[in-house]
Amino acid sequence: MRFAPFVLAALCVLVLFLGLDRIGVLDEREARDAVVAHELTHGADALTPRLDGEAFFEKPLGAYALDVWAHARPGETPLASRRLRAALAVLLVLVTGAAGARHFGARAGLFAAAALVTTVALPLAARGDGTQLLGTLLAWIGVTGLADVVFGRPGGRDLRLVVTWGALAAALLVAGPLTALWPLGGLALYVALARDRDDWRHARPWVGLVVLVVVALPWYGMMTLRHGAAFLARAPFFPYAAGAATPWFAGIVYAVPFLVVGCFPWTALLPDAMLHAATWWRHRLRRLGSATYGPDPAPARELERERHEEGAAHFLVACLLAALVPILVYPSPPLSAALPAAPAAALLCGRLLDHLFEEPTRLARALTRTTLTLAVVGSVTALMFVLLAGRVADAAPGLRALGAVTLLTSWAPFLADLVRRRRLAAVLLALPVALGTPIISLAVLPPMEDWLNARTAAETLAVVAPAGAPVLMVEPPPPSLRWYAARPLVLGAPTPTTLRAHRAGDGATYLAFRPAREHDVAGDLERPLEILARTPTLVVARVRPD
User: Fold this and answer.
1) Which of 259, 372, 375 is nearest to 325 (CA)?
2) Whole-angstrom Cα distance, residue 406 to residue 381?
């Protein structure tokens, strides 16, 4: 345990900071957030998020704080913003580890922190969903505060409540109502199951709700006065309110797969960790169940510790379930929407790992199930990477390497458990993400950049088109094209009138469209279409109207 903090720091560097500058701004949320933040910084309206001058109701104003703080300009690298998001991810890891240490012991806290940093959801959110990352950090500061109020000492309770409700109020301004309220839902579920209304009373939820309303009312009220029903219809679905509408049952379909993939590889251990939440670990207390029963009474302090751990573990199970509820509501959530559940999963797994290190033989059966599950799932995942390599030629070497590493690291815990090296097997569970994420950052994403943003198309336009020449967009432009192309992007059909109206100084009109539309666009034009750049996401072409 002496070197555990250094191992944790190394994991954070490998998973969160390595390769941040190897690829440009991503179309999936990162580019759009950067564009909106730039308009907030340089536009006349500093209260309404806008995209191309139009009000954009996807997430609250505070969601763009990181990009505003990074102060990037169009065309610049997103490195500063990514470093901020990675730093926030480290803070979330530390908050999770501190919560584990407080309620389950120092070793359990270190295991929980290591489990969180080696889940899929954390690096995914750190790269492309800073809003969810910041909202999750604030929500979990609130969760740890509620846990301290319920399970901690009475002294200092008022100060902890101030921090708790202050963090949840900030979450309301950053990520919306669902992010701010699910921790309270977790507490309500725990209280309902534990049947102890004193825990609910100690948290002072009604006072907290008043604090949330008072803090949020200025911005939410101003936006309601300005934009009315258009804003109110989107606000309940922040921070993914701009997503395409999906059937009402889609959230039910998403929730469990998002948890399984987002918390991989620790989802292999999570079912046993949730069952283990009800386990009184120490033999004497488990046998007696009372501090005063039998000829060999258990010490009161030890009994209280067991009750504390059991209650905290049950509270984490309730929070894990409550954190999945927003996924049921969001119109079309991304995988990073599972991040709020990841700290709860990591803490439950950390408690089980702590007990496994204490007495490996008692948890041997659970560990065997976990390692076998991981081996099977990892083998299927490795096969998918190899199949994908056959379709993406540029990234094929990196994808094959990723498949090989995934296969080896998924089977390593099973082999260690097979030779009864159970502590080693538990440690090796972190390897799939710890070693796979650097390969993705350094060898997979850079060759796949044309699949992820429109930088190549923007650079082509910068070379072949006159400065300031407009680009006729057959469909709404990708956010990264707005970021990289320092020129007007005009949405319209390629008719003779629009072609002449948006002609550049060299007499040609420049167009951009998805590859699937190339045949239709070429068929609608009366003039030859000259292809300047063809990428998996965008085609840049030129046509001369006359």
Assistant:
1) 259
2) 7
**Residue 409 CB coordination number (10 Å):** 22
Cα–Cα distance for residue pair 353/236, rounded to 1 Å: 38
* Helix, strand, coil percent values for the chain (each to nearest 5): 70, 5, 25
pLDDT in tens, 505-514: 999 999 999 9
Take residue 295 and report the two structure tokens written for it: 């000829």
| CA proximity to 412, closest of 384, 438, 442, 382 | 382
- Find residue 543's DSSP bridge partners: 509
User: Rounded to an integer, what distance in angstroms lies between the CA atom of residue 440 and that of residue 187?
Assistant: 37
The residues facing 539 across adjacent strands are 513, 534
Burial 302-334 (b: 16+ CB within 10 A, else e): ebebbeebebbbbbbbbbbbbbbbbbbebeebb
Straight-line distance from the first to the last Cα atom of the chain, in angstroms, rounded to the nearest whole number:
75
Name the DSSP class of 204: -
Spatial separation of the C-alpha atoms in residues 327 and 341, rounded to whole Å: 11
Would you state the pLDDT for residue 282?
Answer: 65
Name residues whose C-beta falls within 8 Å of residue 508's C-beta, 6 or more positions apart in sequence: 542, 543, 544
CB 308 within 8 A of CB 57: no
Q: What's the sign of the alpha-carbon dihedral 320, 325, 330, 331?
A: positive
Output phi, psi for 535, to 5 deg: -120, 165
245: its two tokens: 């509408």
* SS3 readout for 252-283: HHHHHHHHHHHCCCHHHCHHHHHHHCCCCCCH
| pLDDT for res 288 | 47
> What pLDDT sits at residue 113?
98
The dihedrals phi and psi of 466, each to the nearest 5 degrees, come to -60, 150
Q: Distance between CA atoms of 531 and 183, rounded to whole angstroms?
A: 53
Contact 507, 531 (CB under 8 A): no
- List phi, psi (to 5°) of 220: -60, -40
pLDDT tens digits for 184-232? 999 999 999 887 778 888 899 999 999 999 999 999 999 999 999 999 9
Q: For the chain, give every domain's residue range.
A: 4-358, 359-451, 454-543
Q: How would you classify residue 243: left for phi > 0, otherwise alpha for psi between -120 and 50, otherwise beta?
A: beta
- The pLDDT of residue 292 is 46
Residues in the chain with pLDDT < 70? 1, 154-155, 282-299
**Degrees, nearest 5: CA angle 245-249-255:** 95
Structural contact between residues 90 and 5, judged by C-beta atoms closer than 8 angstroms? no
pLDDT at 291: 45
Quickly tell me which residue has 């797969």 as its tokens: 257
**The token pair that represents 229 in the structure block:** 């029903």
Residue 1 has what pLDDT?
65
Neighbours of 127 (CB within 10 A): 27
